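Ligand-bound model needed. thiamine diphosphate.
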Amino acid sequence: MSKDTPVVAHTISVLVANEPGILARVVGLFSGRGYNIESLTVAETDAKQSLSRITIVTKGTPMIIEQIKAQLDRLVPVYRVRDLTVEGPHIERELALVKVRSTGEKRVEALRLADVFRAKVIDAKADSFVFEVTGNSDKVQTFVGLMETLGLVDVGRTGIVAMSRGGEPL
Amino acid sequence: MKPEESATTGADLLVKALIDEDVEVVFGYPGGAVLPIYDSLFKQNRLRHILVRHEQAAVHAAEGYARSTGKVGVVLVTSGPGATNAVTGLTDALMDSIPIVCLTGQVPTHLIGNDAFQEADTTGITRPCTKHNYLVKAVDALARTVHEAFYVARSGRPGPVVIDLPKDVLMNKYDYVAPPKVVSEHKSYRPQMKPDPKKVAQALEMIIHAKRPVFYAGGGVINSGPKASKLLTQLVHLTGYPITNTLMGLGSFPASDKQFLGMLGMHGTYEANLAMHGCDVMINIGARFDDRITGNIAKFSPGSKKIHVDIDPSSINKNVHVDLAVVGDATLVLEELVKGWKAREAKGQPKVDQKALKAWWAQIEEWRARNCLAYKSDKETIKPQYALERLYHHIKNKDHYITTEVGQHQMWAAQFLKFEQPNRWMTSGGLGTMGYGFPAAMGVQIAHPDALVIDVAGEASILMNIQELSTVAQYRLPVKIFILNNQYMGMVRQWQELLHGSRYSESYMESLPDFVKLAEAFGAKGLRCSEPSKLDDTIKEMIALPHPVVVDVLVDQKENCFPMIPSGAAHNEMLLGPDDKAGKVSEEGMVLV
Ligand SMILES: Cc1cc2nc3c(=O)[nH]c(=O)nc-3n(C[C@H](O)[C@H](O)[C@H](O)COP(=O)(O)OP(=O)(O)OC[C@H]3O[C@@H](n4cnc5c(N)ncnc54)[C@H](O)[C@@H]3O)c2cc1C
Ligand SMILES: Cc1ncc(C[n+]2csc(CCOP(=O)(O)OP(=O)(O)O)c2C)c(N)n1
Ligand SMILES: [Mg+2]
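Prediction:
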């Protein structure tokens, strides 16, 4: 395919059997075939049927994205592959834990900004906070960026989980 | 669950499950981790075990068995080095879509992860080189897993499946679980067999209205079973269109048929490649637009509408963008196309533009008249092409199967031997594994004890699994190894000539063994021939001997394989012979393999 076709980010949901090695299979597919992983989240979502849901944000030309989906779908323990980016509107969320160490003015400013971003204080010491912030990745990124000048010491991010809007299941 | 009184050990369950899956032969090599299985094999007489001399050969033998029968090939190896030795074979089977179930021993579950003796992370190592793999952690899952593995290996796009079996699982007891009646209801794996009728109708429309059509059929037709080849032949005859085959597709259409243009691709015929280049409708059935076919993608068949019939959606639009994809099994799609074609004919609906078709054939005949496979014959030295022509002459009326190693001899075999039926030609296409052909021939011979099975070999390749002479001696397999001995890694030398100023770095085969004595050392028969005038007699003797035979045919050392599309070039930039110098290899082409 021509090299100048646009590279676009896609958010892909994959429903898989929750069995040993499944994550290695998916990740190995991406590394082995040279695809990008911008974000990856995974957890069991249906204990009764032992299903996990993997959300992957990846980038590629339309032909590559089509390949990625076909390659994922062909893995034996994969039930369903959905490209949320092309299949109607969807919502994306990410959660971050942000640790800030500061005192005085900076501490007050951090708390004020947390309020603006609707971040929750989930741990507090005399000279530190841990905030929990959720939202789309931009919002999380912006919040983390703002904390940098206010004593940021640690960040943990979950990566993106996503879901289509409306009443339909995956 | 508690094991019942009647419960059997995991190893016995395994053997029972294999028998229930209609397995007749297992190719394997023992070791500590699989001793319980070998003990179970010892106590029964339904399953035959063939003891190879290297685990790689076990997998290739199973591939030969599978490709020549349409059944699943079965391999049994021990943990650690047994499993790692099998990796090349597994990768080969994955690339060429060959159904294999490979049973690997593993250290007991409680030792996994401890760097135990002969422990290897077999599922980790084989994940990228299998269609699927399993680690059986408890005996209650064993029989079920085996049945599922066979289903996965043979259904959809076939491929190799590994089942890793910790030793304690093989020794624990449990009740047998028979294979399910309907296995097709796998919970997550459901390949699409039946095509979308709308797509089939569209395909038919495109095919009928083509003016310069070409069928391009590949290994998927062979994978689909012999019926697919029959239907393909029928459809091609109904339409009157030309057809070309990939290396893996040879035999899916009778090579002697007038409509057959020969193989296409890097070493394909002039007429096949130019027909692909100039067609207006390309009908790909079960081929995957491999880079050996397309050459430079940007210049690949620029003016055509492309139809792609394939069972694997990931094959579609992978390398080449197609105009119409028909996902489904080749047999079912071809059945619908033949039906549709006949129905339209019966109704007298729009017919093929015969005038255009005639002009197209006239053009193709012009290309064909170039006689691109012609070579300069010689009275003194045996030309490899001549050797294969003579070989074919002597085997064509016999029930025969051909395997090959990898290199020039492989390409000449594809060009000069004619395949009239599917499942008669086994070659390592996708991985290009030197050392494939001989063990594959053993597997074919096991499946077809009375047939004439010949491995067309190069002197370099054959040394990669030469130890299997011991296996053919043990089982009295009358496999014939027909070595086109040019004393070079000819294919490597050809590329060095073309791309690296004839600097033949490390491609000369120093210190070759005396193949005749070598054969004798293993209890096989050795023959040698260096004169064209004696070749016929040598071949006749080889065929007449009821033993394994190694034939050392000393051929022209300098002969190159033509036609050739150099890497990075287009179909219409083919080199037709040694005088056709390759000022044509671009810098971009140099980096390609
Ligand atoms: C030295 C060397 C030189 C080579 N030169 C050439 C050359 O000149 N020309 C050439 O053709 N090859 C050549 N090859 C082989 C090449 O590398 C590829 O292996 C080969 O071209 C692939 O064949 P194929 O497209 O038929 O696909 P295969 O590898 O046979 O794949 C089969 C395709 O069919 C599909 N399929 C499987 N089952 C079904 C089914 N039931 N129904 C429908 N579809 C199905 C699969 O999904 C897949 O897409 C060479 C190899 C070597 C080692
Ligand atoms: C296992 C393996 N190693 C290396 C190669 C690269 N290779 C391709 S063809 C070839 C030479 C084969 O020589 P020979 O068997 O004598 O066949 P010839 O080309 O001379 O007919 C080599 C080294 C390969 N295909 N497989
Ligand atoms: Mg050679």
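Chain B has 24 helices and 20 strands.
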